[in-house]
Specification:
With about 240 residues, the protein is an alpha/beta fold. The protein has two domains: about 170 residues, SPOUT methyltransferase, trefoil knot domain (Alpha/beta knot); about 55 residues, Trp Operon Repressor, Chain A (Orthogonal Bundle).
Length: about 240
């Protein structure tokens, strides 16, 4: 898989995308990650990416040109062509699955993350200021995505979240399929509580059944614990 990220703050990604599981996935060749500075795709000496909104209003709006130029640059063959998808239906070239982060977008959920993990190429667009000229979403066929019902300063943090959530689902990244099969949202339940040594700490105890060696009883306890946790915290999942 290949992931490209468009941002005006590329320095924000060095730590999150260069450590832990994401770093290992890149070292293994499972994913290729590229972070692009949108200011490199401007044509004025000030490297301007924003302007006043038509119709008036507070704040500034990101201009469409840098986004379109970056998209054209990528589809023109940047990077390893073997990591790109097949030509589009029109036969005009390769196109990434493009996401624009916006509070007005569809809410990010695990089922959608699994869908994204099946895409060979993602392009994540990070907006800022009062938003991005809507022609970017229209012209690039971008899917608008939101992390939830709250507002962030820009799309950089959502881009990191999507990258992490998607990459950990790629084959071989986490090692065993069991880790993914028992996670929260892998079915309709939250994951059951986890425990490790010591068996007692500051008056808090590990449930006896987990130390019994009875795998059937352990599986039943975990299923019921997951059901109770889901009913208490996310009853909407049970519905």
């Amino acid at each position: 898989m290949r992931i490209d990220i468009a941002t005006i703050f590329p320095e924000m990604f060095a730590g999150p995308l260069g450590t832990s599981i994401i770093a290992r996935a890149q070292e293994q060749g499972t994913v290729e990650l590229y972070v692009h500075d949108l200011r490199d795709f401007t044509d004025d000496k000030h490297r301007s990416v924003d302007d006043y909104p038509y119709g008036g209003g507070a704040g500034m709006v990101m201009r469409p040109e840098p986004f379109f130029r970056l998209h054209d640059f990528l589809c023109g063959g940047f990077g390893d062509p073997e990591q790109a998808p097949e030509p589009d239906d029109a036969g005009t070239g390769i196109r990434p699955y493009t996401i624009m982060f916006s509070p007005a977008g569809r809410r990010l959920e695990q089922q959608y993350v699994r869908q994204l993990a099946c895409e060979p190429w993602l392009l994540l667009l990070c907006g800022h200021y009062e938003g991005v000229d809507h022609r970017v979403t229209e012209g690039l066929g971008a899917q608008e995505v939101s992390l939830g019902d709250f507002v962030l300063t820009g799309g950089e943090l959502p881009a990191m979240v999507v990258s992490d959530a998607v990459i950990r689902l790629l084959p071989g990244v986490l090692g065993g399929a069991g880790s993914l099969a028992e996670e929260s949202f892998s079915g309709s339940l939250l994951e059951y509580p986890q425990y490790t040594r010591p068996p007692q700490y500051r008056g808090l105890f590990v449930p006896e059944v987990l130390m019994s060696g009875n795998h059937g009883a352990i599986a039943a306890w975990r299923q019921e614990a997951a059901r109770q946790r889901t009913a208490s915290r996310r009853p909407d999942l049970l519905r």
